[in-house]
Amino acid sequence: MRSLLTIPLALVFVPWTAASAQEWSSAQREVWQVEQACWEHYTTKNLEAGMACFHDDYVGWSFDMPVPGNKADARAFWTRDFAAMDVVWYNLKPVSIKVYGTVAVVHYYFWMTTRSADGDDTTVTGRWTDVLMKQGNRWAWIADSGGPTGN
Questions:
Q1: CA–CA separation, 95 vs 14, rounded Å?
Q2: Dihedrals φ, ψ of 145, to 5°?
Q3: Residue 129: its pLDDT value, please?
Q4: pLDDT score recorded for residue 150
Q5: Between residues 3 and 140, which one has the greater pLDDT?
Q6: Percent of the chain scored above 70 by pLDDT?
Q7: Residue 70: partners with Cβ closer than 8 Å, 6 or more residues away
Q8: Could you read off the pLDDT of 33-52 as tens digits, one per residue?
Q9: Please, what are the domains in the chain?
Q10: How far apart are the C-alpha atoms of 108 and 64, rounded to whole Å?
Q11: E strands along 5-120, which residues?
Q12: Which of 66, 123, 125, 135 has its CA 20 to 30 A from that of 151?
C-alpha cells in the first residue's frame, strides 16, 4: 500500500522540481530578484520601499477582493496588514518567469506564516502572477492576480 501512494506523490513533485530547478537567464534572474526584494519590503514592514515596487498605473486583483485595486489600495492594504500582524516566515518558489523586452510575467507559489497581535500563528499557502514593466533600470509591478489557495 505504501508504494502505491509513493508513485502518485512522486508524479506530483516531479513537475514542480523541474520547473523550479531550471536555469534562468540573466533577465529572468533580475526580475526574480525584484520579486524577492519586494516581498522582503512587505515582510519587514518597509512601506515606502514596498510602494516603490508598484508602478503608478498598477492594477491588481487578489483572490479575496471583489474588484481590482490600484496603488493607493495596495498602500491601504499593506498599512492594514502591518498593523495587524508580523510575518514570522515565508518562502517563494518561482514556477515560470517570462521576459518580453520591458515586460515580465512571473508565476510563483508562496508559503507564509504570520503572527497576529495576540500571538496566534497562521500559515497560508498560495499562488501569484505578477506582471512587471521596466522603465529605465527599474522593474515595477504593473498588474497582478493571486492570493491564498488554502493551508
A1: 13
A2: -160, 140
A3: 98
A4: 72
A5: 140
A6: 85
A7: 58, 59
A8: 999 999 999 999 999 999 99
A9: 24-150 (3.10.450.50)
A10: 18
A11: 54-62, 69-70, 85-100, 103-116
A12: 66
pTM listed for this prediction: 0.83
Cell 502572477 locates to 129
CB of 108 closer than 8 Å to CB of 93: yes
Give CA–CA dist 7/21, Å, rounded: 21
* DSSP structural state of residue 46: -
Cβ within 8 Å of residue 28, ≥6 positions away: 97, 99, 104
Cell of 88: 514570522
Cell of 104: 515580465
Query: How confident is the model over 88-112, as pLDDT tens digits?
Result: 999 999 999 999 999 999 999 999 9
